[in-house]
């Protein structure tokens, strides 16, 4: 198995650019700096890059021809959707040799079938547009995340995005019925279709989902649709500690089962920041900032069945027993929206505070309290005064466990401890059998941590698959799998 | 990528058998015909085989050493769980060169965690024992199929088994949180863990699930657990045609959402056979055998919420509109059990009628009526008098679409048309964008059809993966992927 990967990318020739223009039309091969700029830097601005060109095919067939041409020339392709990724996986490096393959012209909703609960959507369609297409036939496409207005179907499936309704509906990979992918040799692997059951060979679609564009170019996905909830009970709840939050989740699940659609934990540091930078009218739902808040949704599709009494009873008993300090049920959709706005403004509020150090860890739900109990004091010992901004999808065992600078500290001093903080947080998660990247992926940002924490047998198995499907390393080289893993031994 | 696969198996030497005995204990290397017999023939008796030995390791570490020893000797391993597969994937060929790797000593439930909804179970544990372990902590392990008393966790995940609750809980692959696999070089890939979110690289576990033992030996799985339903509404419903059944499913889903746990269709041919061969006390729930019957479960986990009125209303409206002819709700658990017994006795009743020709097709749910409308008359034209035994998991788009001999026909005459019938049924399913194997897999039984209907690009991609992970073709050679696909081009 000593297939030798090519260098990361050859320099694209003028001849290649002409060929690409012949395939997609010259208006859709962007090479001027003014045109390529918005494709070159990642959402967070951590990886400023420079590509040789951006190519924008309009169909699967054009993608296939672009791939074949670039592969033949040894030129690396960086697939890009809405460019909302957080780990530098969808933007070019600084070499000016890579070509960005933007799917932004492939936005069609090819087919929606309410009866089968299936919809086929092209890669460049935004998540929001997909949600809207489902709603038009009375169905729910449940993938939902802050960037849904820009994030695309190709992107969210290539990165196995999570978001706010994973607890009930699963990650992106759980929402795929079929996929269409262009392979490294330019052939099209058409695995679209709306089958709920199909045991004919390896489930190839799951290999491309979450592969961050390193195994093939996702051009379309058939997604699952669900009945739309008719009633959503939204609650804001103060709890004494994370352990109480986890216990509350267990009781809610016991009482109303999988109707628990979202279950978020928000630490006082996160809530205080939001209120400090709040838009007019934003206020703490319970009047004060408690040490820990929980925001949850319980949703019900059946018109005749109302889970509100069951939720109220769980909360009443929990208050009596000290598991919950105080709780408010949203009295209207408007109020539910306001509760959620607090949660959604955490990243923005943290941005207003200057540089931050971010983590996206997961552990088994029951270990969330242990994670916080171990990581919090260790971080405070490492950097006295550090402000811990802890929030996230606790129902999925996933915390966005971030740090802002101590008051009065300089940026350079803060960033000097960044690596030590990463190591501390990741060590803690991994010691608790957790993950260093719950939903954001690896990209370029987490390559080192990925290689440090992932078992070598798993890394080697992934490298074998990459070499088997993309032997010349055409697709997103240097992302997800470090080059060192692909080099011949 | 011209890795040359080894011949299917070298003949195991006495020296190898001694090494295996040293690893697992001589009592657990079976070589006498009387001892190996029950491991050598598949459940349906279609593939009588003969192995060189059966080796029964007691731990993952022993499996790893057995694999390393056999791989080094070029000897093929045929992994086997409960040996309940229907496509000849888990029994040896007739060459006496293969070694059966039975997981039947690895039966431990390693860990059950009610709070996290996760349980780690070894490969040889039966599905029923796993269900019981979950029930002991008040949780549901929802995988359920007729053979659950014998079928094992390793087997059902290696084949991505379906069963009776797929509509709500998904196939086996949807129920896996983690997996432990022994690779072809004898290394252990430990991907156990109970994370709901983990975006660190390719989702390797999905590659081994449904791979029918061709990529690695599954030694343990971490499965998802669910809240247990507190109330199940079971109904037996007569409908005029399959179209009405599909419409009834849509209305039920609209009314009670994902509470629809099972939705089965039973044709008159299937029900008549069951009643003909019925155990004492079995009777048609509605007094007579209607052309089409539906059996469904609606389940509810919440103690305070009863979906019965919503179900009754759907049925009342459907009866008024002629969509449903008649319906009976089970008045007790006992009666619900009796309804389900009718459905579960179909295969046995068909066996009593002599030879049968079986299919396990799937199409999108909305295309079930079209499939039946196209396949039924074509089969009757091909073989006048053929008895069509049509039943299955219509909620998943999956039919067990079987044929029994016309009255008075000889077995040889019937089997003479077997290939033509397969072709007709499979052509019909594929023309409707369906699958030739919804839940049973490929094994050896469906190799030809698999190669005929699967797109060459998909076959080639699977072959690349097989060559990358099992270059010497140690694991289950000749099953799932025909040797011709693996030979050098």
Task: Provide a concise account of the structure shown.
The structure is a homodimer of 489-residue chains. Chain A is α+β, with helices and mostly antiparallel strands and 489 residues long.
Task: Report on this structure.
Two copies of one chain form a homodimer. By secondary structure, chain A is an alpha+beta fold. Chain A has 18 helices and 19 strands. Chain A has helices at residues 14-24, 33-40, 60-73, 127-136, 153-158, 166-169, 204-208, 242-256, 268-276, 308-320, 333-344, 346-352, 368-382, 411-416, 418-431, 447-453, 456-469, 483-486, and strands at 29-30, 53-55, 77-80, 99-102, 109-113, 118-122, 139-140, 176-182, 188-191, 217-224, 226-227, 231-239, 260-267, 292-300, 326-329, 356-357, 360-362, 387-393, 398-404. At the A-B interface, strand 9, helix 7, strand 11, helix 8 and helix 10 of A face strand 9, helix 7, strand 11, helix 8 and helix 10 of B.
What's the overall average pLDDT of chain A, rounded?
95
Contiguous runs where pLDDT drops below 50 for at least 5 residues of chain A: 1-6
Oligomer: homodimer
Number of strands of chain A: 19
Structural class of chain A: alpha+beta
- Biggest sheet of chain A, open or closed, and with what strands and sense? 8 strands, antiparallel
User: What share of residues of chain A is helical?
Assistant: 25-40%
The count of helical stretches of chain A stands at 18
Beginning-to-end CA distance, first to last residue of chain A: 10 Å
Q: Outline of chain A, from the CA principal axes?
A: globular
Radius of gyration of chain A over all CA atoms, rounded:
23 Å
Residue fraction in strands of chain A: 15-25%
Please give the most extensive interface between any two protein chains, plus how many residues each contributes: A-B, 96 and 96 residues
């Amino acid at each position: 198995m000593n297939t030798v990967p090519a260098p990361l990318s050859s320099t694209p020739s003028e001849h290649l650019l002409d060929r690409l223009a012949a395939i997609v039309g010259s208006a859709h091969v962007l090479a001027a700096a003014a045109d390529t700029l918005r494709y070159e830097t990642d959402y967070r601005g951590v990886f400023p890059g420079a590509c040789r060109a951006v190519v924008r095919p309009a169909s699967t067939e054009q993608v296939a021809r672009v791939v074949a041409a670039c592969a033949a020339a040894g030129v690396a392709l960086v697939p890009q959707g809405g460019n909302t990724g957080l780990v530098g996986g969808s933007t070019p490096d600084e070499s000016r040799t890579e070509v960005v393959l933007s799917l932004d012209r492939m936005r069609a909703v090819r087919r929606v079938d309410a009866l089968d609960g299936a919809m086929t959507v092209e890669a460049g369609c935004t998540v929001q547009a997909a949600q809207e297409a489902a709603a038009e036939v009375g169905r729910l496409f449940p993938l939902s995340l802050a960037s849904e207005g820009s994030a695309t179907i190709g992107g969210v499936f290539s990165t196995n995005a999570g978001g706010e309704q994973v607890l009930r509906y699963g990650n992106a990979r759980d929402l795929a019925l079929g996929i269409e992918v262009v392979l490294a040799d330019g052939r099209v692997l058409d695995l679209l279709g709306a089958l709920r059951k199909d045991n004919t060979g390896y489930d190839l679609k799951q290999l491309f989902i979450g592969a961050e564009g390193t195994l093939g170019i996702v051009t379309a996905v058939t997604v699952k649709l669900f009945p739309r909830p008719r009633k959503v009970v939204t609650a804001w709840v103060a709890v004494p500690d994370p352990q109480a939050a986890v216990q509350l989740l267990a009781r809610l699940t016991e009482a109303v089962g999988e109707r628990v659609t979202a279950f978020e934990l928000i630490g006082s540091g996160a809530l205080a920041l939001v209120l400090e930078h709040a838009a007019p009218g934003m206020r703490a739902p319970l009047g004060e900032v408690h040490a820990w808040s929980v925001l949850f949704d319980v949703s019900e599709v059946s018109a005749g069945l109302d889970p509100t009494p069951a939720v109220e009873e769980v909360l009443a008993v929990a208050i009596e027993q000290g598991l919950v300090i105080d709780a408010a049920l949203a009295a209207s959709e408007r109020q539910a929206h306001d509760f959620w706005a607090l949660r959604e403004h955490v990243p923005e509020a943290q941005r207003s505070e200057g540089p931050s150090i971010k983590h996206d860890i997961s552990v088994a739900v029951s270990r969330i309290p242990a994670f916080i109990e171990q990581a919090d004091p260790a971080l405070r010992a490492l950097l006295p005064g550090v402000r811990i901004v802890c929030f996230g999808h606790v129902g999925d065992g996933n915390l966005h466990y971030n740090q802002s600078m101590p008051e009065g500290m300089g940026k350079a001093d803060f960033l000097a401890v960044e690596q030590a903080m990463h190591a501390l947080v990741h060590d803690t998660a991994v010691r608790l059998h957790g993950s260093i990247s719950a939903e954001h992926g690896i990209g370029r940002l987490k390559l080192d941590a990925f290689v440090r924490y992932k078992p070598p047998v798993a890394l080697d198995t992934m490298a074998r698959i990459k070499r088997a499907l993309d032997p010349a390393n055409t697709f997103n080289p240097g992302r997800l799998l470090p080059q060192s893993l692909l080099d011949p031994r």
